[in-house]
Structures are given as C-alpha cells and as structure tokens.
Amino acid sequence: MTDSEACLILNLLPAVGPVTVQNLLRNGGSTAAILTGSTAASLRAAGVNTRARESILHWSDYADLDTERDRIRQAGITILALTDDAYPQQLKQIYDPPLCLYVRGSTDALQSSRTLAVVGSRRTTRYGADTTERLVRSGAAAGWTIVSGLARGIDTVAHQTALDCGGCTIAVMAGGLGHVYPQENIGLARRISENGAVISEQPVAIKPDRRSFPMRNRIIAGLTAGTLVVEAGTKSGSLITAQQALDQGRQVFAVPGRVDSPQSRGCHWLLKQGARLVERFEDIDEEFDLFSQPAAGSRDAKTSRQSLPLNEEEQIIVTVLKRGELSVDEIAGHVHLPVSKVLATMLGLEVKRVVCQRPGNIYSLPGKSH
Predict the structure, then answer these.
(1) Is 101 inside a domain boundary?
(2) Which of 9, 15, 65, 122 is close enough to 152 for a disulfide, judged by CB 3.0 to 4.6 Å?
(3) How far, in Å, CA of 227 to CA of 238, rounded?
C-alpha cells in the first residue's frame, strides 16, 4: 500500500479526520503505516477515540476503495493526496490539511502563490456585486488566482468575473464533486473546471451538510495568501472564513459598505478589529510582496505587523498573555470577562497580529509559546 492510497482510504473512514491523522503522523511513521501497523493499544496511547480506532483497525469494512476509484475515474477527477509532491504547499501548512483533494480541472491552478479568497454574502446588494466585479477584474488582470466557494451571491460573481476576463479561478465545494451545490451553478462549475479547478476534500458521492461548510471554509483560507470579504452579515459564513485565515496566519481584507445595510455589518466589524480596508485592488497588492515575504517568526515578519491601537480590554489581555500561553477559559478567569467577550476580543487581536492562536484554542503572544 502506498501513502497516497492510504490517504484516500483514511479519507473514506468514518470518525477519522485530518486532525486525528496529523496527530498519528507526529508520533512517527507514515499514512500507510497507520493502516498497516496500528494496534488498538498504540491508537489508544495516541489518544484516538473508540470509533476512530474501530475504523482504522477494520478499515476494509468501512472504506470501499474500488467503488470510490470507479467514481473518480468516471468523473474525470484527479486525486492529490497529502503526501503527493503536487499537493498545494500553502494548504499543507495549515493545522488540519485535507488528507485528499478531489480535483476536476487543472492541478497546476493550485500551485500559484498569488491566490486570493473572495467571499461574501449570498444575499448580495448591487453595490456588493459591482464592487466584487471591479476588484476581481483588477486582480485577474494582475495575475491573481481567485478562490471562492461556488455559493450564491458574492462567490458566484467572483468566479464568473474571473472567467469572463480570462483569469484563473478555483471553486472549493462543501460536498463531493458528484453533488454541485447550488444546482444552478452546475454550468458555472463546468466552466471553472475548464479554466481553473473545482475541488473538494469530500468523497465523490458525499452531499454537503451543515458541518461541511465550515470545513470547506478552512480550505478556501488555506489555499490563499489572503481573504477579501466584500459583504457579510454579522452571522455570515464569510466571517468564519476570515477567522480561519487569521488562525492560519493569513491576511484579512474587508470592503466598507453602506452604514445602513445589514450586509455591511460583518465587514465593518472586521475593519473595527483591524482588517485592511480595501477600496481598490492596489490596496491588496500593496499589502505584501508574495515573492519576498519574510519567513514566519523572522525579525522582518515581526516588525511588519500592523501597529494598531489597542483598547483597554485588549491591553489587559496582552498583559496577561505576557506570562505565557493560556486557553480562552483561563484568560476569561484572569480578566474577569465572559468567555464570549474574550473570544470577540481575541479575534480583534488576531486581526491586528498581536496574538497567535495555537491548537486546542490556546493563545499566546508571538514568540512567547513554550
């Protein structure tokens, strides 16, 4: 069994996700060894739960590899496993990279470092649609690959505009490639696959559900150097994508809107927290030079952080974190604030690049983890 085959099998198993596999790989070995060399005792010692242990130890009872391969072949899909050289390097750097990417279209489209996520409300306004079209046209002309989620509204406008002006675009689906959602975008998905790529981490026949959309959002953010939010309500999934981008150390941009529009409130909240305001595409282009970015943790990277003012609550939390890394609950206990308030404040500090979130919902100041 090859590591690529093992990734595909692990991706088919119930209760086994990217985090479980990453934890097992950190203990040494390979994806193939997880399936061929694991024992109940070794999996239990690694903290794998009962259901996931059952899936791994008896994987042939749960993963119909031959049927999945037939579906992949019939649909003209290419598989990129986490262990493959062609797997996108930007995506591989996140905490929980997908075990497999199902790709219909060009795998070369996934290799560009000049990639921008463009996301926003499904119920967009004319202002939002026009602004998206203007910014994407400029971005595509400058050679940027536009990544979005194939949803109604801003996502659709972003994909269509990139295609109409001869640019490259990538659509990340929440379900398997056998279930394009929404159905009215089946034709758009076909065009994207001919001029970019439509991708998913889900097996071909899996339908999208409520849980799979946030999972999809982390891929949108992880594939890209930055995330642009054009319109978003206060409960928009676009804010989840922005949060994912921050968690992954990527840039977040937001477009201001009408002060009386519900679709502007999410963007205005991001701007208040320190997201970069975008009026024209040059605002994004000027933010970073993709070919000479300082390495994470380097002196240049630290000095390039935005110098934004901190409010009183943010200052108190930063003072607490100078003692070392803490969980949200621990921070709330120290500063005597509700957890919900602490979470909102931490997001603002992440936007300003003052704090870093680590696995397990642990926060620290840059360079202060131990």
Answers:
(1) no
(2) 122
(3) 9
Together in a domain, 219 and 327: no
Q: Does the residue 32 lie in any domain?
A: yes
Q: Which two tokens stand for residue 247?
A: 């968690």
**In sequence order, which residues have a C-beta less than 8 Å from that of residue 94 and are 6 or more positions away?**
218, 221, 222, 248
Pairing assessment for the beta strands 326-327 and 276-277 based on DSSP bridges: unpaired
Domain count, the chain: 3
Q: CATH number, domain at 324?
A: 1.10.10.10
* Cα dihedral 88→92→93→94 (10° resolution): 120
Please indicate, yes or no, if residue 344 is contained in any of the structural domains: yes
Q: What is the 3-state secondary structure (H, E, C) of 32-83?
A: HHHHHHCCHHHHHHCCCCHHHHHHHHCHHHHCCHHHHHHHHHHCCCEEEECC
Co-location of 23 and 150 in the same domain: no
On the CB side of 100, how many CA atoms lie within 13 Å of its CA?
Answer: 25
Q: How far apart are CA 173 and CA 74, in angstroms?
A: 19
Tens digit of each residue's pLDDT, the chain (370 residues): 899 999 999 999 999 999 999 999 987 789 999 999 999 999 999 999 999 999 999 999 999 999 999 999 999 999 999 999 999 999 999 999 999 999 999 999 999 889 999 999 999 999 999 999 999 999 999 999 999 999 999 999 999 999 999 999 999 999 999 999 999 999 999 999 999 999 999 999 999 998 999 999 999 999 999 999 999 998 889 999 999 998 888 999 999 999 999 999 999 999 998 899 999 999 998 885 433 343 333 334 333 434 456 788 888 999 889 888 999 889 998 988 888 888 888 887 887 778 888 776 788 887 655 4
Tell me, yes or no, whether 281 and 333 share the same domain. no
Domain co-membership, 257 together with 116 = yes
Residues, the chain: 370
Domain span including residue 330: 299-364
